[in-house]
Amino acid sequence: MNQAQLPAPTPEAFAHSQALVAALRQQIADAGGWISFADYMRSALYAPGLGYYSGGATKFGEAGDFITAPEISPLFGQSLAQTVATVLADVPDGIVLELGAGTGKLAVQLLGELERLESLPARYCILDLSAELRERQRATIAATLPQLLDRVEWLDALPAQWQGMLVANEVLDAVPCQLVHRDAAGTLFERGVSVGEQGFAFSDRPLQDAALAQAASILPDDYTSEFQPEAAALIGSCAAGLTRGAMLWLDYGFPAREFYHPQRSEGTLMGHYRHHSIHDPFWLPGLTDLTCHVDFSAIYSAGHAAGLALEGYVSQGQYLLDCGILQSFEAHTPELDDKQRIMALNAVQKLLSPAEMGELFKVIAFSRGLSGNSLLPGFRSADRSGAL
Q1: DSSP reduced 3-state for 388
Q2: Residue 196, strand partner residues
Q3: Per its UniProt entry, which superkingdom is the organism in (predicted)?
């Protein structure tokens, strides 16, 4: 879409964006005129009071910039609860730890279903960097499950030690990424950000980071892509404190051999603004979400390096089917009228369909110290671990 056709921000929102632009310009000047794209993305998303996730703009749902799976259907979280309940049965004193809880809808869905299954954890912990989103989460839980609010705790950092179940839906895609370009002659460059006559612009420098160069050796000539060493570090940090339990990560992405396909020569970096996909990462900083697809092979490698066992890797559609989402649909919709039932079925179809979220989104699970010999719900069929 032509950017001139995109919805215009309000004067207040535009002023907010311009304040972040000024801060980014100063950051670039202080660094000598160039910063890595990871540093740009980190500030654009998380700069205190100004970044996309730390500002006050609505992000999720019809009024925001994108819709996540818990916003589409409550059956999403109810399905995830089948995996969570199985882990908590094995770790009866375990907590549930949710990273990046958005509006709180996934927490409500998980807690509600766990209560129905008589599998509630003593503590449901949420780690979210956004003070504004924390308040939305608290309000959502208080309005829907007031009897369970006292079980919910908001954390400022990962626990030093924990056991139980970690759930992270669409977290990895928002971890700052580094950009690498291999030119037609095979030389590797790190693609960063500078300030030009028209504003922020990409600027390449010879790649100096040995670890990043090693990771980027997979790139074909004349190719640009993203790398997320910070995502691997996040997996390692979560694993470092895990004494017993499991971690469930859901996001859009591919294994390495698909991620770095020749047809993906411009990478997967994109923005989300008012339900439109934006390919200019410098469009209205602070008002536009920035994401990249996830290299699940790199995530698997990070989990393996951290001493975790791989429980499975499947498409979101297959995961939800194995967790019984269609049976849940039948159990929860008999009292709906025809129109409501069709709307509910369409929502489930969006989660499952290969043409929608069912194939692009993947689910990977790691564990440590679980005593059960059976596979976790969600991973009992159509496992794709061999593709990693």
Answers
A1: coil
A2: 199
A3: Bacteria
Q: Which domain holds residue 134?
A: 29-382
DSSP class of 57: S
Q: For residues 37 and 24, what is the distance between their CA atoms, to the nearest angstrom?
A: 12
What pLDDT is attached to residue 4? 59
CB 128 within 8 A of CB 134: yes
In the chain, what are the helix, strand and coil shares in percent, each to the nearest 5? 40, 25, 35
Residue 9 belongs to some domain of the structure: no
Q: Give the pairing type, strands 124-127 and 152-155.
A: parallel
Alpha helix stretches (DSSP H) within the chain: 11-30, 37-46, 69-72, 74-90, 105-116, 131-144, 210-215, 229-241, 256-259, 296-305, 316-322, 325-332, 338-352
Residue 7 lies in a domain: no
> Which residues have C-beta within 8 Å of that of residue 334, sequence separation ≥ 6?
none
Pairing mode, strands 124-127 and 95-99 = parallel
Q: How far apart are CA 296 and CA 383, in angstroms?
A: 14
Q: Which residue has the tokens 């740009």?
A: 40
Report how far residue 165's alpha carbon sits from residue 248's, in angstroms, rounded to the nearest whole number: 8
Q: C-alpha 217: how far from its chain's center?
A: 26
Instruction: Say if 1 falls within a structural domain.
Output: no
Its pTM stands at: 0.94
Q: Which two tokens stand for residue 206?
A: 């010879």
pLDDT tens-digit series, residues 321-368? 999 999 999 887 777 788 888 998 999 999 999 999 999 999 999 999
Structural domains of the chain, count? 1
Q: Give 230-247 pLDDT, tens digit per residue.
A: 999 999 999 999 999 999
State how far the Cα of 154 lies from the Cα of 128, in Å rounded to an integer.
8
Distance separating alpha carbons of residues 126 and 175, to the nearest angstrom: 17
What is the CA angle 360-363-369, rounded to 5? Answer: 165
Q: pLDDT tens digit string along 61-80?
A: 444 445 789 999 999 999 99
Among 212, 207, 203, residue whose Cα is nearest residue 186: 207
